[in-house]
Amino acid sequence: DLASASKDDDTVAWYPNDGAASFGEKRIISSSAKGAYSLVAHDIDGDVDLDLIVASNSDNTVALYRNNGAGTFARLAIFEHAIFVLSVAAFDFDGDGDVDVASASYYD
């Protein structure tokens, strides 16, 4: 599968892999991610489905789009004051067994 963030039309999308070296039609996850600049896929909640963490620089938000396993995602704002956020990362940075999220902003 392939996921994309588009700052030009505020869209986060998913393109399912069809298993034949190609991708299916674009499925819109969100069309209101203001300035969606980058994303990372990671299983944040431990349910084996990949979730998306999205950096949206027009509304200064880092948001989690939780995959419910049925092809839809639920949005949860993680941080709403990331001034001109450009990128996100997900990793167990502190070694405690939980996934942590980091972001980088233009002015940081």
Question: Would you write up a description of this structure?
Answer:
The chain is mostly beta strands and 108 residues long. The chain has one domain (2-105). 0% of the residues lie in helices and 50% in strands. The chain has a four-stranded antiparallel beta sheet, with no helix packed on it. It has a three-stranded antiparallel beta sheet with strand order 1-2-3, with no helix packed on it. Strands 8-9 form a two-stranded antiparallel ribbon. The protein is globular and about 40 Å long. This is VCBS repeat-containing protein. It comes from Calcidiscus leptoporus. Keywords: Signal. InterPro entries: FG-GAP, Integrin_alpha_N.
Provide the descriptors you would attach to this structure in a database record:
mainly beta; 50% strand; three-stranded antiparallel beta sheet
Give average pLDDT, whole number.
94
Describe the main β-sheet briefly.
4 strands, antiparallel
How much helical structure, as a percent, in the residues?
under 10%
DSSP, total strands: 9
Please state roughly what percent of the residues sit in beta strands, choosing from under 5%, 5-15%, 15-25%, 25-35%, 35-45% or over 45%: over 45%
Topology readout:
Layout (H helix, E strand, L loop, with lengths): L1 E5 L4 E5 L11 E4 L5 E7 L8 E6 L4 E7 L5 E7 L5 E7 L8 E6 L3
Antiparallel strand pairs: 1-2, 2-3, 4-5, 5-6, 6-7, 8-9
Structure, briefly:
Helix content is 0%, strand content 50%. By secondary structure, the protein is mainly beta. The protein has one domain.
